[in-house]
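Re: that backbone. Tokens:
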């Protein structure tokens, strides 16, 4: 049986090196943002006739490789980026590429920032880095160069994927190179009775954050996870050992 060859709808040759960051806009059909390992970002805009216009001038405020890109779920002209340079930046495409970086969070992690994800309902961005740390950023505080509103160090290896729950704005999932997937809820707080009982039981329990709801294990070299958009609490993950689908009563 002869295989049919398919031509791409459009090819952009402005990226001069490979890249790993890409995201479709959830608010403007056909709009795409791509990033490469030479710190350049380009925005693709769909034109009439099914082709794309890509400005040759890159969004280039980062100093090292672009690792992840995320369009704002609510603001059609705004996207965020993270980089090996340890910064998170927020951009407005209405401005010229050279002046489009509106917010910069310096030293957002102690090492490369691998992944970010934008909360659909609240002005929060979650980030994960090679340091194994998960940070939660409030965009209103980022404008003031403030610290993260939450910081979690449970994973013992780089964070490889992170995603907010599609409907519960306080819940998110993260995956790491330590072969763990963790589910978290920012709304959970430790009460006084729990604190007193844990002091009696020792430091091991006390070191577990109360926001940590669930740990999924059994896969090796986990690369990516996603919440199911229709089935509440369902997560799919991909790893070197295969795919997993799981659902916990915690969410």
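Recovered sequence:
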């Amino acid at each position: 049986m002869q295989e049919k060859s398919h031509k791409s709808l459009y090819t952009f040759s402005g990226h001069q090196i490979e890249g790993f960051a890409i995201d479709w806009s959830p608010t403007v059909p056909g709009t795409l943002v791509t990033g490469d390992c030479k710190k350049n970002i380009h925005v693709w805009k769909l034109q009439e006739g099914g082709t794309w216009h890509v400005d040759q001038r890159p969004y280039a405020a980062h100093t090292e490789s672009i690792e992840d890109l995320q369009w704002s779920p609510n603001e059609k002209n705004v996207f965020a980026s993270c980089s090996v340079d340890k910064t998170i930046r927020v951009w407005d495409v209405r401005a010229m590429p050279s002046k489009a970086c509106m917010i910069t969070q310096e030293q957002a992690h102690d090492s490369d920032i691998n992944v970010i994800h934008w909360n659909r309902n609240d002005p929060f961005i979650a980030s994960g880095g090679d340091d194994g740390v998960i940070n939660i950023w409030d965009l209103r505080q980022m404008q003031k160069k403030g610290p993260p509103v939450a910081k979690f160090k449970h994973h013992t290896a780089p964070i490889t994927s992170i995603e907010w729950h599609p409907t519960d704005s306080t819940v998110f999932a993260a995956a790491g190179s330590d072969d763990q997937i963790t589910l978290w809820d920012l709304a959970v707080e430790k009460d006084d009775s729990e604190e007193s009982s844990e002091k009696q039981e020792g430091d091991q329990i006390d070191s577990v954050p109360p926001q940590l709801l669930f740990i999924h294990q059994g896969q090796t070299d986990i690369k990516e996870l996603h919440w199911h958009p229709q089935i509440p609490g369902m997560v799919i993950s991909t790893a070197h050992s295969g795919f997993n689908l799981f659902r916990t009563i915690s969410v």
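The helical segments are 139-142, 192-201, 203-206. DSSP finds three helices and 19 strands in the chain.
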